[in-house]
């Protein structure tokens, strides 16, 4: 089922690889389990993107094939890293006519509708992880100057970037977007919700 949606709002999902995903969970999940988890969470995020144009940024052929199968436009980044992937996706979305871009991680196992984030009055919307440190979803204008700052402390760095650029910014906490699956503690929190 394609998720092409309204081209005015685009969702950009950077995905490195399913096969090599979730290396920090290697002590508790085997290779096949980590790959399955990566696919399941990415599918959940794609479903949450309903109503939006969907772009998957990857340099992995398996991910690209999966992305095309779910109706996403595949973007190949020119450089490695999450910041470069977000930038490549934002540019592709802008070229396709989007006015708002939601960059979202692919490892959000309970993600719900993303489109409402784009209706927020602020120019930039930062949706932090459950520790209020990282950025699990980020809404930005499709064009104009904005530097992605993924990494430790990215939630506050993205707020600072918005202020530096003269953009209004809001931090929006959503439980469905706060839980990502990076560590064993995250997996425990996910399983506590009655998930596998």
Structural class: alpha/beta
Task: Pick out the low-confidence regions.
Answer: 1-5
**Gross geometry:** globular
Q: Any idea what the radius of gyration is?
A: 16 Å
Q: Which whole number gives the mean pLDDT?
A: 92
Q: Care to count the β-strands?
A: 7
Q: What's the arrangement of strands in the largest beta sheet?
A: 3-2-1-4-6-5-7
The total number of structural domains is 1
General description of the model:
This protein is of the alpha/beta class and 196 residues long. It has one domain: Spore Coat Polysaccharide Biosynthesis Protein SpsA, Chain A, CATH 3.90.550.10. Helix content is 33%, strand content 19%. It contains six helices and seven strands. It has a seven-stranded mixed beta sheet with strand order 3-2-1-4-6-5-7, sandwiched between helices. Strand 2, helix 2 (61-69) and strand 3 (73-75) form a beta-alpha-beta unit. It starts with 5 loop residues before the first strand and ends with a helix.
